[in-house]
């Protein structure tokens, strides 16, 4: 072999320098390191969460926009036949709560978002000139409430159709605001009579300026509109205001219902205004409401409320621009017999209740079968929280409404009978994922959701059939599987507090397709206290041994069963409020952390007894490794790739043991870890691949390590950030490189290494 020449020596030195910098020995930062190419997609559910508003474009047929309360905004792409998420590249989580959306009524490429999750979160007006592909972000001094009570009001953001550079925004706390340069700068409208209540106390939500609408017939193109209406959903003597001079001055114009709060409004080409009123801002707690019409020419008001309202109020309202006189309104909080949509073709003089003549085809998203009682053909009830309602301005037969769980649409809105609705959700994934597992056998992914229970994902490209029944629980808080018998799965969950419950624990012997309830006995924590079943509120996690034979339920005093709940015992040596984990390979081994004593405990006799193990190398204070909420991902994890293979996150550092907890080594390097999970090792290695949400240098993102945490590679990029709102992460033990991420609002993501 010839000796290396000077050029090769210089190249080798450069390579060594770059490697040293990448390993943290120099000044190269994480932002200078290119992310590994990954392909990202949603594990399909289809909708799933609350979308408070839908708006059709008035400038282009087939174009529509949707806002959600925690998953960002979407655009309907008629060519692709799917909804496209518009904010996946944003790193600010608050912007994923969209308070209002306003497409330009003249230029279909321009759209604005009012974005801000809550009163204590950052807020901004977002502008796009290319249909949401790219955004200009304008931070604003007023706060929003995209995920607070009152998020169904609106639309708060309005564009003057006669001068589209002029925008108005009705804020929750600080009155009415105006921009005359396409949203680049904003100023408070000094003459508006309701300046706002200011910052709310605690978590109280203000309704504020609930909507702004402009009368297009009151102005000329390029000159601006003269007549504006703004509703105010705060306590006060007046709640609806009108301006006849383009917003310079305002007068109260309450009609006949000053005691109710105006929540939404629509105006037709003639200047006729339709307003829905309620006694609260919703989406819950509304007991009374009305629908009123104001004639544009005379200014006279008329109560046009549908006559068969049984309870609750009204929210959604829309006019058919291609069919004058046709309008629609929705009910809200009409829990018995359930919410509905009414349609009128004579400006509200007469109404047709569409609930009883409607059918829904939910075959594309079968989870809707569990959303409520149904008397409709095809399953799925009419829906609740119907705040978004829209009639296509180009086609009066095409209409859509949003619910707390989906978006329904119909092409036959004017049908005399047999009105058919179907979920219009292709591309929408707007859910919060609490927990997930990827077992060593059976389906590669089993998930636990908020509100939707959870799913067995046998095909990531299809909405799964619901199987989390017996018992059905709205939230799944923890999942576990038997490492050597992976078709045995256990879960714990919780149900809405006003629903009765008999069990919040269950086990499955067929990979989660069918379940049997697990019930623990009542226990007394002290002699002077009555016995109580501590498993009934969803706080008690359940774990299963590697062979599936032993369950531990984490009630305040952990209970152990070896016969699926027919009989119960205690584990000696376990402290109160312990949260054990089971070894994934050895069925006799279990582990637990005694946070009060700052020590690790282990059992080698099938959870009959626990005793301290050395835990050499762990921090002296283990307290930062404790979880404090039932929906938090647990931080002590047993790997399925070896007996005694443990990973423990303490604070933002990760520690690894391969000897059952006798000794630990640091396994996160310079990465500050928030969440982590394990996946299949790289070929030739026995060390699990680590996937983590964390921060390296100044870069927060999704990371992977293949060498036990010494080196980390970022695997998400600037286009895949999802507001950096994450709740759980896990790798796949059978597919190298596969990672699953449960977001808080953008559904369940999975990533695979992309072909280079």
Automatic annotation (TrEMBL):
The keyword Cell inner membrane does not apply. Residues 1-30 form the signal peptide. It comes from the Bacteria. Keywords: Carbohydrate metabolism, Glycosidase, Hydrolase, Polysaccharide degradation, Signal. The keyword Phosphoprotein does not apply. Belongs to the glycosyl hydrolase 74 family. This is Exo-alpha-sialidase. It comes from Sphingomonas oligophenolica.
